[in-house]
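Re: the request from the purification team.
They wanted to know what the chain is likely to look like in 3D before they choose a buffer screen. I agreed to run a prediction and write the result into the notebook, where they can find it.
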Amino acid sequence: MLLNVSYNDKKITQKIDAEVGKPFTLKERFALGGIGSPKLNITETSLEIQNLLILDNNLNTCNIEMRPKGIIVRFRSLLETYGLVIPYYKLTIYKGDFAVYSIYRDQYFIKVKSDTKAIQKYFKKLLDYKADNAPTSIEDL
């Protein structure tokens, strides 16, 4: 779900919390070693997101926030902040070309450069957390 998260709106906050859970507490953030990603350079996106990004001439960057039941990919266009809310059960991450990670949710996708060790370490942490907290699948029974 792609939302404008520029303003503090209770309805949007409730939608996000219902989809991916409330933010981690400070103690949980320390235990995880941080929940936010470094700045990620966007290389390619789906059509809906691309239409927002081409409105200005700034460098296309985003960041990822981990939540208990999913992630939020935030990016800016003009003076607005948008969030792509992805629960873990709809999250698909591919390690494609040399240094590119692809983040998918339904018809939306964002491809980001992973040219530093910090970015690769963050994606490993994200995938490990997703695997540890995923519900038991039918194949595991």
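For the purification team: The chain has four helices and eight strands.
Please add any questions underneath this entry.
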